Task: structure prediction
Amino acid sequence: MTGLQVRIAVADAPAAGEVRLLELDRHTIGLYRVGDQYHALADRCPHRGAPLCSAGRAVRGIALDHGIPTRGAGPALIRCPWHKWDFDISTGRCLVQPRLRVRRYRVERDGDDLIITLRHPTPEGAAGREPERAAFTP
Ligand code: FES
Result:
């Protein structure tokens, strides 16, 4: 681990629905897996500052299947421990107040390792678009 990045083996990465907490330059970061992708989020709720990753829990979302509400395939949301608002792990977006987002960090693959850096996953000049490098796909 260096000051601005942390490296962990893919084998040590969390399973879906779990979180692995990482410390990086005095930032606490929650690493999650949704489907085949890994996402790194700040351990701070953008609403009132709750410890989102260290005290929140990953939950399934609700989707419409031909107009019928169904549970999502796997945990893709994190629920804040204080006011129970849900945040999309892959985008950081709040489902209750869409203008609120959890800070996200870049996750990249290097061989059998994942590298998490303090850099934001949004590419330069992509304002208004969803980040293309928000996660690593094995
Ligand atoms: S502090 Fe997280 S929803 Fe209020």
Q: What stands out?
A: The two ends are 21 Å apart (CA to CA). The chain has a mean pLDDT of 86. Residues 45, 47-48, 50, 80, 82-83, 85 surround FE2/S2 (inorganic) cluster (CB under 6 Å).
